[in-house]
Each structure stands twice: as structure tokens, then as C-alpha cells.
Design goal:
By secondary structure, the protein is mainly alpha-helical. Helix content is 61%, strand content 0%. The chain is built from nine helices and no strands.
């Protein structure tokens, strides 16, 4: 049985472009430290190509870890978070929940890059929500609330903690993600 975090392929294609937008906003943080490492940029381009239907899910599933390895080429926490945002965007072909991971890592990167601006993370989340179409919101509403389903990135792991967790919770609350089982609504 597929994970509730997977989403249909059509919905993954829909949210992949938003995830790529989120990751691309912070790409310069990574490229400033590793200008010759094109793995995150390629991951974002692949996420966009997947969204357009130009790449199939099976090939992208096999390649989803490439951009994540680029995080080791960066030294600042902001650049590492930017590389991870790109990796999460590329992971949407595999599992739709990675779209929220891309947004969360992008918000984290912004916050780390601008520690003198306490509102930086909030501003990034606002930007992300403003670029989310209603069909994207509808697709992301299908995902289980963070921490309730252990079978994917929205389980109790890294995305559920710290700034990543608070960002995903805020995104899910803002889009109206279900916080109760469907029978209770």
C-alpha cells in the first residue's frame, strides 16, 4: 500500500513546480560557496522538468539523492540548507511530501542567512504561500499532518523538528491541512 505522503503522480507533478520555486529562491546561498557544483541547480531543473511531464517518476526516484550530497560541499549552515531544499524539490517525483520539505529547508536557509532579521523566516513562508495555487493547496491538503504518518518525510524524523517542523506545521495550518481523521470533520 502506498504511503499517504506519496500523492498521485499528477499531484506530485503539480507541487513539484512550487517546490522548485521555493528551492530556487535560496540557490544563490549555495552557489556563493560552491559555484562549480551544479547538483542543486540540476535538481531544481529536474523538478521543473518533472512538473512539465518531461521526466518520468522512476528515473527521478533513482536520482533523488544526488542534490542532497551537494550539502557536503558547503560549509555555512545556510548553504547546506539551500542544497537540501533543492534535494527535497527533486524528491517530489518520489513522494509529494518532499514539497513541504523543500519549502521548510528554504525558509531555514533564509533564516540562517539573515539572523539579524527575526522576521526573515516568516517573510519567506508568506512568499511561499502566496505562490501556491489553489490546485497546489488542494494537493498538499491530502498529506497527513506532520508527525502522524511514519511512512515518509513527514514522519517523526528531521523534518518534524526545529525550524523545519515549525515551518511545515505553519504551511499545513495555512493551507487547511486536515488535523483530524476525515471521519471527525
Amino acid at each position: 500500500m502506498p504511503s499517504a505522503q506519496s500523492l498521485s503522480e499528477a499531484d506530485r507533478r503539480l507541487v513539484a513546480s512550487w517546490a522548485a520555486d521555493c528551492a530556487e529562491r535560496v540557490l544563490a546561498l549555495f552557489e556563493a560557496e560552491a559555484p562549480d557544483d551544479d547538483r542543486p541547480r540540476n535538481a531544481i531543473a529536474r523538478a521543473r522538468a518533472f512538473a512539465r511531464g518531461e521526466l518520468d517518476a522512476a528515473d527521478e526516484i533513482r536520482r533523488r539523492f544526488v542534490a542532497g550530497r551537494a550539502a557536503h560541499a558547503a560549509s555555512s549552515p545556510a548553504a547546506v540548507a539551500a542544497a537540501r531544499a533543492a534535494a527535497q524539490a527533486a524528491g517530489v517525483a518520489h513522494m509529494g511530501a518532499h514539497a513541504l520539505g523543500a519549502a521548510a529547508y528554504a525558509a531555514k536557509a533564509v533564516g540562517l542567512a539573515q539572523p539579524h532579521r527575526p522576521e526573515a523566516v516568516r517573510d519567506e513562508i508568506t512568499w511561499q504561500l502566496e505562490r501556491m495555487s489553489e490546485p497546489m493547496r488542494s494537493a498538499l491538503r491530502q498529506l497527513p499532518p506532520l508527525g502522524e504518518d511514519p511512512s515518509g518525510p513527514l514522519g517523526s524524523g528531521l523534518l518534524a523538528t526545529g525550524i523545519l517542523g515549525s515551518t511545515i506545521r505553519e504551511l499545513q495550518a495555512s493551507i487547511g491541512a486536515a488535523s483530524q481523521p476525515a471521519a471527525d470533520q
